Amino acid sequence: MQPIRTFNVSPSLPLRLEPLRRLAYNLHWDWNVESKDLFRRLDPDLWESSHHNPVLMLGTINQGRLLEVVEDEGFLAQMDRAARQLEDYLQERTWYQKQRSSKPKECYAYFSAEFGLVDCLPVYSGGLGVLAGDHLKSASDLGLPLVGVGLLYQQGYFAQYLNADGWQQERYPINDFYNMPLHLERNPDGSELRIAVDYPGRKVYARVWRVQVGMVPLYMLDTNIEPNNPYDHDITDQLYGGDIDMRIHQEIMLGIGGVQMLKALGYNVTAYHMNEGHAAFSALERIRILIQEEGLSYAESRQVVASSNIFTTHTPVPAGIDLFAPDKILYYLGYYAEIFGLPKEQFLGLGRENTGDLSAPFSMAVLALKMATFSNGVAQLHGVVSRQMFKGLWQKVPVEEVPIAAITNGVHARSCVAKSTQELYDRYLGPNWSSAAPDSPLWERMDAIPDEELWRNHERCRLDMVLYVREHLVKHLRDRGAAAAEINQAQEVLDPNVLTIGFARRFATYKRATLWMRDLDRIKQILQGNKHRKLQFVIAGKAHPKDIPGKELIRDINHFIREQHLEKQVVFVPNYDIHIARLMVAGCDVWLNTPRRPREASGTSGMKAAMNGLLNLSVLDGWWDEADYVRTGWSIGHGENYDDPNYQDEVEANALYELLEKEVIPLFYEYHDVDGLPRAWIAKMKDAIRLNCPFFNTARMVGEYAQRAYFPASDRYHILTVDNYAPAKELASWKSKLRDHWFNIRIKDIDVSEDTDIEVNQTVAVKAKVDLATLTNDDVRVELYQGSIDANGEIMNAVPVVMDYQGQDATGLSVYTANITYTVSGLQGLSLRVLPHHQHLSSPYEPRLIAWAE
């Protein structure tokens, strides 16, 4: 029976408890110990059963309990304290205000297909989403004028459970938005704020929900409304669900709908950040608006858009990039080509590396790169991989100079460090440890933390994890209808006093979740060989529902546990989520990561573990390649790359066993003092915290995005849009002239003062004559390119030296001079190149034009 009318019923709170509502609807409670403790204190059982959802708690709690706490002075005092902390947080002078006090009003929009903020908002699948959530939290901490843009999924990703054979099964619980920390955005007349996005033959409508993340609003679109048809209801049904058509529907809604939503909300965005390529269609919509509403040409509009767009790639392999068939792009988005005045193939070329390959698919990453003023990978090694992957977009540019930077990921410290550990740091390091820079003297106080206090706190965290895993497994088995004996056995898994290795991540095959099982006899010997030096594993993670090889890895682990009778020592924890992750990164002793290098773009779970004092045991990939892997853990191998994957697995599995047998286990068990403390292990824990916490932190990461990307992009937007976009129009016109005449440039003569034999630090004078055709010296920058010669005869480790313009000679050639030296001996070389130059270019590589001496 359909209702004739619906009501949104809000929790009924006594007036004295109204501050609870404000606290519940701002996710600041997730990283504020006082607020989280307050809700746990209100009803511990309901807090757990609601998946730590204070809004649901307030809507379902017994009214009698509310009347009780109204009379509880201790509770009221804590509530008032938490409310003051939230108010102080929202009002405090921030890092951003100190950096940009003299700048005009600005706003940064952060687009992501998923956001992992708290476990009661299950609209994330893994690391990408949790990183996006941490990005918003630190943007709030720093006070950035940032807004998040995403989709609100009715079923989220999926809930995982295992059948009796250990095979992953999926459930899709329905998210009840009205009992989540969400606000439905409304028009001034009280009606729902809605947008309408064009799809072939119809409009699709979406309403807007807001999650308040401290000072940062996250707006999410929901299409499960009338008058949409049933198919369109499902656009925001599942994260990464459905077929390729559903994927393009979702990405149109995220990118195009996201831009329309921000416009409807009244935001004047000055910098757009695309977190992965899912939101790249936003660039097309921004260009359309500038053409149709501001009267700009396509070239002028594209200039404005590209100058204020930022793109972060998280993908280290081409297979991870969203690709769409050309006919599909034209079917869904061909009308943009007409608006832009572009032939179809030129429009499709926006998403092609080789625009002449008319059969090539349309790449969302390529579109994003072509429409961005700043692009980056998420670790230094990933930056190297990304430059190699996308070098074809910048023809003739040396791969090391391809303009894809690297900003190493971080994690939000107050969200991932255990409560008791935070209190320990607060006590000995001070309250600013969570955002202190690596060079802060605060970190010198690590040694002030007594070894015994740090160790006993960690042992409590390990016990908390073990107790939760037991409880979680029992519930899972009961839900599955398991036998009583199996349920009883689950109540005794793991030993809270044993060295515990954690492994938790997405079960993609390249992450090699079963590498530690490669030699079954050897790992059994390590696990069971010495009753005084026991080892145990806690494992968790999900495979994509369509990833059969990933599911097979999960089944293989569960078969191994059962067949080898290791149920007490090796546990697979089903339905991995943010809450389980936080318990594991606090309660394990060692964090294991075994990706096939260099396919792990960054990896952030190991950072969270390090912040809690865990030691990392990992292949040198992603972030771990940058860390001090000697003082804060162990490296599996030394960064070697192998052509034979099977051989690589063999070598690295053996290296893992050697480390466990000869270093990890002995360090944990053998070096105890008279007080029973593993002093050497604790010293390594302190190094893990001191060296990793301040750098692999979203406070540093988001500050770096602000300084390197948001501020310059926003400034460029303001510069290009003044006087009715006059600078943008001038720059677009200049680029058109540049492209028309660039290929007429000729490097006519290069005169080098010295012969082939010179000495270190000897000055070499170089004089060049260049025919700039119809261009002028103001349009170009002429550089010498000097460096060592590698085995292939190529210049490596090059240093560009800008040449000085000396005017024109009698024949009209432009004359340039420079003096260079070589600081090392050996075979050295130089070349000469001409690059575009304009005051408003984000970099000389922006026009993708370069001329080299031949």
Give an account of the 3D structure.
It is built from 27 helices and 28 strands. By secondary structure, the protein is α/β, with parallel strands linked by helices. Strands 1, 2, 5, 6, 7, 8, 9, 10, 13 and 14 form a ten-stranded mixed beta sheet that branches. The chain has a six-stranded parallel beta sheet with strand order 17-16-15-18-19-20, sandwiched between helices. Helix 22 links the parallel strand 16 and strand 17. It is globular, with a radius of gyration of 29 Å. The chain starts with 18 loop residues before the first helix and ends with a strand. The relative contact order is 0.08.
Keywords:
854 residues, ten-stranded mixed β-sheet, six-stranded parallel β-sheet, 27 helices, globular
Short description:
With 854 residues, this protein is α/β, with parallel strands linked by helices.
Tally of strands: 28
The overall pLDDT average reads 95
* Coarse shape: globular
Terminal residue distance: 79 Å
| Radius of gyration, in angstroms, nearest whole number | 29 Å
Largest sheet: 10 strands, mixed
Q: In terms of per-residue confidence, which ranges show pLDDT below 50 for 5 or more consecutive residues?
A: none
Helix content: 40-55%
Helix segment count? 27
Report the structural category: alpha/beta
Strand content: 15-25%
